[in-house]
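sry for the spam today, last one i promise. struct tokens for design, 72 residues
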């Protein structure tokens, strides 16, 4: 019984989608063509780190505001 099961498992083939041969990327526009923003712009690092800072600080700011909010 176990010998049969091991043969079935050994025959099982894992596969992925075949790569496009026309381009080394999975989309025709090339690298970074699928992003909704332009990481090559001059303002990108400031915008990126600004969004990261606001996203990290917001929960702490909300917690402080909730702590010091007058009780109704």
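last one done:
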């Amino acid at each position: 019984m176990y010998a049969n099961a091991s043969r079935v498992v050994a025959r099982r083939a894992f596969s992925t989608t075949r790569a496009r041969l026309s381009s080394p990327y999975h989309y025709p526009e090339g690298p970074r063509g699928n992003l909704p923003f332009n990481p090559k712009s001059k303002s990108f690092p400031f915008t990126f780190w600004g969004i990261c800072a606001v996203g990290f600080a917001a929960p702490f700011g909300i917690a402080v505001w909730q702590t010091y909010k007058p009780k109704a």
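The mean pLDDT is 79. ok im logging off now
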